[in-house]
C-alpha cells in the first residue's frame, strides 16, 4: 500500500540567493511542496495548473531565516546588563540565570516563549546552546518539535574548576561526555526537526580532558559541534596563554574542528585560523550586534568568504539584544562598512579602516538564509527541488496605505525595480510584516488569519 503525499502548490513572487553574489527574483512562480519537500519551482506560464495558495501581488516570499547562534537560557535576560565586558557579564548575569534551569518547569516556560517568539520573527532554524542540565536540554528539543521549529540543540558541557561556578559545573570530564552522549541520543529520537549538537561552551570553561573527550565523541558519532571561538580580546588571549595556540588551532588539536562545526563570533581569528577552519569544513556564526557590544572587534565577513569559509548570521541571544535574524542582516552590512571606513576621525582616512571589508544586502541575505543553512548542514535556505520548504511570506503594502506598525512600503513608480524592493524587504521587514511562516511545509507562525494555508 502506498500513501499519497500531501501536496501544496504556492504561487509566489519570491527572492532567494543560491550563492553569495547572486540574487534570484522569481517574479511569478509556482513552488510545489510534497510532504515538506520542494518538488518543483516553475514559472507560472510553464505550470498553469491550479494552485492552493496564491500570494502574488501582496506578498514577497523568502526562505526562512537560520539563526546560527542562540543561548536559549539567556532569553529572560534579553536587553539587560550589556554594559559589562564578556567575562564579567557571564559571572554577574548569565551564570546565575542559567543555574535556574535545573527547574524543568521554569525551563519549559522559557523554551515555549522563546521558540514561539523566534518563529514569529521568521527564524525557521535555530542553533541553540541549551544549558548544562540534561533534562532541560532534551525539553528544548521537545518544544522545538512541538512548535515546529528546526532546532539544533546542544547540552552545554563545562567542567573547568576555576572558570565555571559550582552549580553549573559538570562533575568531571568522563561524566560530562557521557551525559552529552545520552542527551544526543534522546534529542535524535525527537523527529526530523531536531538535531543534536556537541556543545563545549568555550575553551576557557573546559578542561583538556573534556575537550578531547568531546572530540572523540564527535568522531565516533558524527554529531555536529558548536562552540565559541576567538570571541573577544579576553577569550582569545586566555586560550593563547593557556595553550600557546590560537583558539582555532586548539579546537583542531582536540578534534573539535570538523565539517559543519559552528564557531560563534570568530572576530579575532587570523587569516591562518580562517583557512584552517575552512579546510575543516567549519564556519563562523557572525553576530554583528553582539560584536558591537562584546567582541572588541568586528568579524571580517568579506575576508572570511574570500578564504572560502562558511558563514551564517546569529543573534547571540542574549549577548545580542534583538530576537530576530532580520535586523542582523542590515547590521551586518552596517558593521562591515564601519570596519572598512573606520570610526575614529583623528586617524587619517588612509589608515582609519580596513579596505575591502564591506558587504551588501544580497550577501547579508545569503548569510541569513543559504549561508546559514550551509554552515549548519541542513537542506533549507534556497528554493530548489530536494530542499525542505522553510519559508516566509512578507506582506507588502502600497505607499500611502500601509500599516503604521511597519515602515515597509512599495511606492508605485518608485519601487518598481525588483532589486529595490528586495533592499527594502531586507532592511525593513519585521515580525509585523510576516503573514506566514512555514517550517517543513507546515504553517507555524504569522500575522495573517489561520485560513491561509
Ligand atoms: Zn554565544
- The structure class reads alpha/beta
Count the beta strands.
17
**Count of helix runs:** 14
Write the CATH fold name of the largest domain.
TIM Barrel
Per CATH, which architecture of the largest domain?
Alpha-Beta Barrel
Considering the protein shown, what is the CATH homologous superfamily of the largest domain?
Metal-dependent hydrolases
What does this 3D model show about the protein?
This protein is α/β, with parallel strands linked by helices and 453 residues long. The protein has two domains: 7-63 and 382-445, Urease, subunit C, domain 1, CATH 2.30.40; 65-376, Metal-dependent hydrolases (TIM Barrel, Alpha-Beta Barrel), CATH 3.20.20. The chain contains 14 helices and 17 strands. The strands form three sheets. Strands 6, 7, 8, 9, 10, 11, 12, 13 and 14 form a nine-stranded parallel beta sheet that branches. A four-stranded mixed beta sheet has the order 3-2-1-4. Strands 5-15-16-17 form a four-stranded antiparallel beta sheet, covered by helices on one side. The mean pLDDT is 95. The structure holds zinc ion. Zinc ion (ZN) is lined by residues 69, 71, 228, 264, 316, 319. Zinc ion binds next to strand 6.
Provide key terms for this protein.
alpha/beta, 22% strand, four-stranded mixed beta sheet, 453 residues, 17 strands, nine-stranded parallel beta sheet, binds zinc ion, TIM Barrel, single chain
In terms of topology, how is this protein built?
Layout: E1 7-19, E2 22-34, E3 37-43, E4 53-54, E5 59-63, E6 65-71, H1 86-98, H2 104-120, E7 123-129, H3 134-147, E8 150-154, E9 156-157, H4 173-188, E10 194-200, H5 208-221, E11 224-229, H6 233-243, H7 247-253, E12 262-265, H8 271-280, E13 283-286, H9 288-295, H10 301-306, E14 310-313, H11 326-341, H12 349-352, H13 361-376, E15 391-395, H14 418-428, E16 434-439, E17 442-445
Parallel strand pairs: 1-4, 6-7, 7-8, 8-10, 9-10, 10-11, 11-12, 12-13, 13-14
Antiparallel strand pairs: 1-2, 2-3, 5-15, 15-16, 16-17
Helix pairs in contact: 2-3, 3-4, 4-5, 7-8, 11-13
The chain binds zinc ion (ZN).
The site of zinc ion has 6 residues, from strand 6.
Amino acid at each position: 500500500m502506498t500513501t499519497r503525499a500531501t501536496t501544496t502548490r504556492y504561487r509566489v513572487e519570491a527572492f532567494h540567493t543560491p550563492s553569495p553574489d547572486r540574487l534570484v527574483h522569481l517574479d511569478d512562480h509556482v513552488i510545489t511542496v510534497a510532504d515538506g519537500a520542494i518538488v518543483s519551482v516553475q514559472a507560472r506560464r510553464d505550470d498553469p495548473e491550479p494552485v492552493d495558495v496564491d500570494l502574488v501581488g501582496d506578498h514577497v516570499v523568502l526562505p526562512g531565516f537560520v539563526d546560527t547562534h542562540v543561548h536559549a537560557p539567556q532569553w529572560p535576560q534579553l536587553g539587560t546588563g550589556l554594559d559589562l565586558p564578556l567575562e564579567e557579564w557571564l559571572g554577574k548575569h548569565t551564570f546565575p540565570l542559567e543555574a535556574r534551569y535545573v527547574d524543568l518547569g521554569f525551563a519549559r516556560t522559557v523554551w515555549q516563549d522563546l521558540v514561539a517568539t523566534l518563529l514569529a520573527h521568521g527564524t525557521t532554524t535555530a542553533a541553540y546552546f541549551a544549558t548544562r542540565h540534561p533534562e532541560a536540554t532534551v525539553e528544548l528539543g521537545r518544544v522545538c518539535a512541538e512548535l515546529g521549529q528546526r532546532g539544533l540543540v546542544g547540552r552545554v558541557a563545562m567542567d573547568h574548576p576555576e572558570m565555571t561556578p559550582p552549580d553549573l559545573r559538570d562533575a568531571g570530564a568522563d561524566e560530562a561526555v557521557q551525559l552529552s552522549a545520552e542527551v544526543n541520543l534522546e534529542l535524535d529520537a525527537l523527529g526530523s526537526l531536531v538535531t543534536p549538537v556537541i556543545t563545549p561552551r568555550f575553551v576557557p570553561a573546559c578542561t583538556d580532558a573534556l575537550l578531547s573527550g568531546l572530540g572523540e565523541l564527535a568522531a565516533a558519532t558524527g554529531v555536529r559541534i558548536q562552540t565559541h571561538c576567538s570571541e573577544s580580546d579576553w577569550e582569545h588571549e586566555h586560550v593563547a596563554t593557556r595553550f600557546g595556540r590560537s583558539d582555532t588551532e586548539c579546537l583542531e588539536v582536540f578534534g573539535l574542528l570538523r565539517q559543519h562545526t559552528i564557531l560563534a563570533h570568530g572576530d579575532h581569528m587570523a587569516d591562518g585560523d580562517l583557512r584552517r577552519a575552512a579546510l575543516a569544513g567549519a564556519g563562523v556564526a557572525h553576530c554583528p550586534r553582539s560584536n558591537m557590544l562584546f567582541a572588541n572587534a568586528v568579524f571580517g565577513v568579506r575576508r572570511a568568504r574570500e578564504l572560502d569559509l562558511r558563514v551564517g548570521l546569529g543573534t547571540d541571544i542574549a549577548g545580542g539584544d534583538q530576537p530576530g535574524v532580520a535586523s542582523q542582516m542590515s547590521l551586518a552590512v552596517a558593521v562591515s562598512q564601519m570596519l572598512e571606513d573606520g570610526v575614529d576621525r583623528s586617524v587619517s582616512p588612509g589608515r582609519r579602516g580596513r579596505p575591502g571589508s564591506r558587504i551588501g544586502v544580497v550577501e547579508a541575505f545569503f548569510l541569513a538564509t543559504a549561508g546559514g543553512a550551509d554552515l549548519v548542514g541542513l537542506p533549507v535556505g534556497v528554493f530548489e527541488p530536494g530542499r525542505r520548504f522553510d519559508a516566509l511570506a512578507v506582506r507588502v503594502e502600497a505607499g500611502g496605505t500601509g500599516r503604521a506598525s511597519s515602515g515597509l512600503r512599495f511606492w508605485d513608480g518608485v519601487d518598481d525595480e525588483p532589486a529595490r524592493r528586495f533592499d527594502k524587504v531586507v532592511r525593513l521587514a519585521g515580525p509585523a510584516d510576516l503573514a506566514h511562516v512555514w517550517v517543513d511545509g507546515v504553517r507555524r507562525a504569522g500575522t495573517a488569519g489561520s485560513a491561509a494555508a
